[in-house]
Design goal:
N-(1-d-carboxylethyl)-l-norvaline Dehydrogenase, domain 2, Rossmann fold, 6PGdom_BS, elongated, seven-stranded mixed β-sheet, alpha/beta, 2 domains, single chain, NAD(P)-bd_dom_sf, 12 helices
Length: 294
């Protein structure tokens, strides 16, 4: 399979490598000439055989919308665009309808795996027609975790189904991190317990709270037991907000995820102790930037 990949950052660059390791021919484009295979979008499209498949892996919002609009002018009937970024699910219906005016297919795909996806594979949640999904299936198979039937799911044929599922995934992630962070703050504060990193490490085996997120947090605590190097400040990617908005629109109670989102807002007003743990975990799984103390 030949595929174009736009965006070669922390995730996109690793995805290119993983697909190439699986035998796919990947033409990557980035504004950084040091990592880009071609000099422009036009050159990327010209390098692909028809029908073309182009995967967009850049920041959500206007960067993705403008890139898909540009691809609409460059691609032809029967080609396919995959939006693998963290776009809001409502953007997908608009993009799909616009591309359909020229007979260009569209698949939205939520991608989870962070900086570890190259090694472990990515969880892929996609939306779109069966016909369009079949065109990109070799790439899905190359990217998903090996030796399992999980990690790849067709969330629905309606554009936006994949990104909606990924949005809810990230909302759950907010609540999980907040719970770990609050527990860590309490354990770290009291005098009655010692060796907090190893307490967390002990939970990784045989307990109901074990998870890969916990594994990554233990690594962070062992490197900086009290997280003294970090400020208690954590960004939100937007998907937590969208999850809460969707909950309101559908009258679904979501107290844990809502509280976790608002806790991040509090962190921007003061140096929140628990939020240092959130920042550490986000850095661990996704390579997200942290705010260090001076």
């Amino acid at each position: 399979m030949h595929i174009g990949l736009i965006g070669l950052g922390k995730m996109g660059g690793n995805m290119r490598t993983r697909m190439r390791n699986a035998g796919l021919t990947v033409v990557g484009y980035s504004r950084d000439p040091q990592v880009s295979d071609v000099e422009s979008l036009e050159a990327l499209v010209e390098a692909l055989p028809s029908p073309r498949v182009v995967w967009v892996m850049i920041p959500a919002g206007e960067p993705t919308r403008s890139t898909i609009a540009a691809l609409k002018e460059l691609l032809s009937e029967g080609d396919l665009v995959v939006d693998g970024g963290n776009s809001k699910y409502t953007d997908d219906a608009v993009n799909a309808a616009s591309l359909a005016e020229k007979g260009i297919g569209f698949v939205d795909c939520g991608v989870s795996g962070g900086v570890w996806g190259l090694q472990n594979g990515y969880a892929l949640m996609y939306g779109g027609s069966d016909e369009d999904a079949a065109k990109v299936m070799p790439a899905f198979e190359a990217l998903k975790p090996p030796d399992t039937s999980d990690g790849l799911v067709h969330c629905g044929t309606t554009p936006g189904a994949g990104h909606f599922a990924k949005m809810v995934h990230n909302g759950i992630e907010y609540a999980m991190m907040q719970a770990y962070a609050e527990g860590w703050e309490l354990l770290d504060k009291v005098d009655i317990v010692d060796n907090v990193p190893e307490i967390f490490a002990s939970w990784r085996t045989g307990t109901v709270v074990r998870s890969w997120l916990l594994d990554l947090f233990v690594d962070q605590l062992r490197a900086d037991e009290h997280l003294d190097q970090l400020k208690g400040y954590a960004e939100d990617s937007g998907e937590g907000r969208w999850t809460v908005e969707a909950a309101i629109e559908n009258a679904v109670p979501m107290p844990a995820i809502s509280a976790a989102l608002f806790a991040r807002f509090v962190s921007r007003q003061e140096d929140d102790v628990a939020m240092k743990a959130i920042a550490a975990m986000r850095n661990g799984f996704g390579g997200h930037a942290v705010t260090k103390r001076d």
